[in-house]
Specification:
Number of helices: 13
CATH superfamily of the largest domain: Zn peptidases
CATH architecture of the largest domain: 3-Layer(aba) Sandwich
Shape: elongated
Structural class: alpha/beta
CATH class of the largest domain: Alpha Beta
Strand content: 15-25%
Radius of gyration: 27 Å
CATH topology of the largest domain: Aminopeptidase
Number of strands: 19
Length: 446
């Protein structure tokens, strides 16, 4: 864990200074750095390509952006903070009055020390961002505004990596790489996804195939669906968008998919009701959120939810310079990796099972799953020692009786007071002796 924390912190420091947008070298540089950690394959869709109702925009190239006063002193400079320029700004090289300059300045009056993050991807304009306190400190006079930028034909880039499993049914892990110089609302998702990939890579047996996708928000996910949506509709079992996963003393929360009764939604609902898991569940809404809105659009209606901790719009650093590593914390990200990994393991476990000897109870004693003497001191005791004997036998008998292909593990587990993950030992014991088959992820015929 110490190594993961150190590595994650170092990766954060590499990624944070990059000037990212929905297109351009910042996205590619981010992917190239992440490729050193996981085997991402980068793809690009050319400028002008129509993707559903959208069109791939030109790449934004930004070289310099600053404001100087009459004495030549720099008031702001993107070399100090990427957020100082409106993302996708047009080029400009003018002397303007303070009154005219204010028409192109963006601040947050209620957060006077914060520099806002402002974008204008699809309408031509230029502008700068600064703290409200700095705006109030500006004196009358002329100001030299300079933005050295251009928009060129290029590509919109995204990347993906696939971890194969026993089944071609897939779990999608999607995150975005388009915000500059923000911690929780940008880098938390890619960092958690990257370390989650490496955790899952170490699993001895993966039931599902896991598809990890890194893309620009909104236009990126729409483009990805344009190219791969048919595959997702055929293969996707469950999906997650990872965003805003940092924050001290914040609980992981789950935003439900638009589709009802999806695997992760049912799993978390079960854990909350039976194991006092207490994960906040947020209902699906298209009004705000991240790329789950695109995955859940009615033409696809995929079973994709979202995990967040310090949820967008609910903390003072949202979309501004207060969104720092110190407020996010690398420790909180590692906690998110741990919790999401556990939920993904439980999702694999929480399938349908088939009793392989369903005509009466199997003779469990010959499999060393039942005591070999019937006496008051042995009633209800299994002879296996991996977990409590009474618990083992209770689970074995329940699994065998309800494993008819019609009950998920969480359905039958409701009859006993044990943690869902405890069933893994009993399931493996029964499978080892050829008494149980599964998990399956659709209802089966006995």
């Amino acid at each position: 864990m110490i190594n993961e924390l150190k590595e994650m912190d170092e990766l954060f420091n590499k990624l944070f200074p990059i000037m990212r947008s929905i297109t351009g070298e910042g996205v590619r540089e981010t992917i190239r750095i992440l490729q050193k950690y996981i085997p991402l394959e980068m793809e690009g869709i050319s400028t002008g390509t129509e993707v559903f109702d959208w069109k791939i925009p030109k790449e934004w190239v930004i070289r310099e952006a600053w404001i100087k006063d009459e004495q030549g002193n720099k008031v702001i400079d993107i070399k100090d903070l990427n957020l100082h320029v409106v993302n996708y700004s047009e080029p400009v090289n003018l002397w303007v009055s303070l009154e005219e300059l204010k028409k192109h300045l963006h601040t947050i009056p209620q957060l006077p020390d914060a520099v806002p993050y402002v974008i204008s991807y699809y309408k031509e304009r230029w502008g700068f961002c600064m703290s409200h306190n700095q705006l109030n400190s500006l004196g009358e006079g002329q100001y030299h505004v300079y933005i050295d930028s251009e928009k060129v034909d290029g590509q919109l880039n995204f990347a993906q990596a696939v971890l194969p499993g026993k089944s071609d049914k897939e779990v999608l892990i999607s995150t975005y790489i388009c915000h500059p110089s923000m911690a929780n609302n940008e880098l938390s998702g890619p960092l958690v996804a990257t370390y989650l990939f490496n955790r899952l890579k170490q699993w001895n047996n993966r039931e599902f195939t896991y598809r990890f996708v890194y893309l620009p928000e909104t236009i990126g996910s729409i483009t990805y669906l344009w190219k791969y949506g048919h595959e997702l509709k055929e293969k996707l079992y469950s999906g997650l968008v990872l965003t805003c996963l940092g924050g001290k003393n914040r609980r992981l929360s789950f935003k439900q998919p638009r589709l009802n009764h999806t695997p992760m939604d049912e799993l978390i609902t079960y854990l909350n009701s039976r194991e006092q898991y207490e994960m906040p569940i947020r209902p699906f809404t298209p009004l705000h959120g991240s790329d789950e809105r695109q995955y859940c659009s009615p033409g696809f209606n995929l079973p994709v939810g979202q995990f967040s901790k310090m949820v967008y719009g609910t903390y003072s650093g949202y979309h501004n310079s207060l969104d720092t590593k110190e407020n996010m914390t690398i420790e909180a990200l590692l906690d998110s990796v741990n919790e999401i990994e556990k939920l993904l393991k439980l999702q694999e476990l929480n399938g349908y099972y088939i009793n392989q000897k369903p005509f009466g109870e199997p003779k469990l004693g010959k499999y060393d799953l039942y005591p070999d003497i019937n006496a008051p001191g042995t009633w209800g005791k299994s002879s296996t020692k991996k977990i409590d004997n009474r618990q083992q036998l209770n689970q074995v008998l329940t699994l065998l009786n309800y494993s008819d292909g019609k009950h998920r593990l969480s359905d039958l587990a409701k009859t006993l007071p044990y943690s869902l993950e405890d069933y893994e030992i009993s399931i493996e014991a029964l499978k080892e002796h050829g008494l149980l088959a599964g998990p399956f992820y659709e209802e089966q015929e006995l």
